[in-house]
Amino acid sequence: MIVMKALHLHRVDLNLLVVFDALMAEEHATRAAERIGLTQPAVSHALNRLRALFSDPLFVRSPRGMTPTPAALEAAPAIRSILEQVEGVLLGGRVFDPKESTRQFVLGLSDYAAFVFLPRLTGRLEREAPGVSLIVRNTSRGVGLPMLDDGIVELIAGNFPVPPSHMREELLYEEDFVCAGRIGNPALDRSLDLERYLSLRHLQVSMKGEPHGYVDAVLRDKNLKRNVTVTVGHFLMAPHLVGTSDLVATEPRRLFGPLAGRLPLQLSPPPIDIPSFRVVQAWHARNDADLGHKWLRQVVREIGQWVDCTP
Fold first, then answer.
1. Is the pLDDT of residue 32 over 60?
2. CA distances in angstroms from 198 to 177, 214, 259, 266, listed in the order given
3. Does residue 311 surpass a pLDDT of 50?
4. One domain for residues 41 and 119
5. Mean pLDDT of the chain
6. What is the per-residue pLDDT across 176-222, written as a single tens digit (0 to 9) for each?
7. Are residues 165 and 291 part of one domain?
8. How many Å separate Cα 42 from the centre of its chain?
9. How far, in Å, CA of 248 to CA of 242, rounded?
10. Same domain, 296 and 240
11. I need a surface site. Which of 49, 76, 123, 197 has the fewest CB within 10 A?
12. Residues 301 and 155 in one domain
């Protein structure tokens, strides 16, 4: 049985969170003190109290200043969110300004979702929120929702199961499939009918390393089977392997479409109907009213609406 020490908020000076946030932003005690109008000894005293509160050093001295520990990095997004929500309450909700914010967001993305969203997302941040930073953690269909529940990430994008009632979900787009092969692949010199498709050497992506995936399940429902000869655990391996071999792959259009102009790839519709899948963003209900979080979701929503799947 685990016995947890009770935390009485009335005994905690919430100004300590302001000091923590300043140290995260500056990674230097003197600059953090100047940032929030305190003396350097006052910041040092507050840091000692924070260390006792968290039972962790939080910031350790390094040649470049004060380096946050893993515990500090994990706590930082939530603390920044708390402070912005408090400011929002006190200022009537008019608080999150992306041009001025130094907030750090933690996203959960698979390599597919990172390929689709990150180039546009980082471009938007450079233009609209130069002080905002991102931590991107790898996720997948099976672990995305638990990562939200545990606070490891605050927003996920990709294909996930229907979330529980304490989480929120928003559809970004429906993704369909394309069959891709190398330009010059002799097996693709004629129209790709179902019989030839099933006889080809196929590459497929499985995060768990299983030799059968979504496409194989669709085929199995029709009493059909393809010849999967290579299985990889990362989406971004697929276009490069197909472009340098006689393998073919049936994978998301937004993965292969933009790369067809850069790699020697030819694309064609699969000779069988493969249902599309939903790409969503999901978050914990505790972040619903967070103004910074709302802004980030709006940016991701707009990227999902405009994301291109052509070369």
1. yes
2. 16, 15, 24, 18
3. no
4. no
5. 88
6. 999 999 999 888 877 889 999 999 999 999 888 888 889 999 999 99
7. yes
8. 37
9. 6
10. no
11. 123
12. yes
Structural domain tally of the chain?
3
Residue 18 has pLDDT above 80, yes or no: yes
pLDDT (tens digit, 9 = 90+) per residue, 46-101?
999 999 999 999 999 988 789 999 999 989 888 887 887 777 677 665 568 899 89
Res. 288: pLDDT tops 60: yes
Residue 38, pLDDT > 80, answer yes
234 domain-assigned? yes
Q: How far apart are CA 296 and CA 159, in angstroms?
A: 19
* 149 and 283 fall within a common domain: yes
Over residues 153-162, the mean pLDDT reads 95
Question: Tell me, what's the pLDDT at 7?
Answer: 58
- Domain, as residue range, for 37: 10-69
| Whether 181 and 271 share a structural domain | yes
Q: From residue 140, how far is each of 28, 145, 152 by CA, in Å? A: 36, 9, 13
